Amino acid sequence: GSYIVDKAFMTNAPPKMIVLHPLPRVDEISTDFDSDPRAAYFRQMENGMFVRMALLALVCGKT
């Protein structure tokens, strides 16, 4: 089954529920949902970048 997360899909979701996604997205998350505070995938993407930078520094001995 396919689904699309958009504002209409999230109307019945709990207010504290967040949506994560590894990105890049294709059609599974509508861009109209990007401004919703529960859309946490951009924060996830940014935090993932810093984690990868730290791991790379650790592996390369640059701690």
From TrEMBL:
This protein's record includes keyword Transferase: yes
Family matches, as InterPro entries: Asp/Orn_carbamoylTrfase, Asp/Orn_carbamoylTrfase_sf, Asp_carbamoyltransf_Asp/Orn-bd
Keywords: Transferase
Pfam families reported for this sequence: OTCace
Listed GO MF terms: amino acid binding; carboxyl- or carbamoyltransferase activity
Leader peptide range in chain numbering: none
Homology family: Belongs to the aspartate/ornithine carbamoyltransferase superfamily.
Protein name, as recorded: Aspartate/ornithine carbamoyltransferase Asp/Orn-binding domain-containing protein
Annotated source species: Phaeodactylum tricornutum (Diatom)
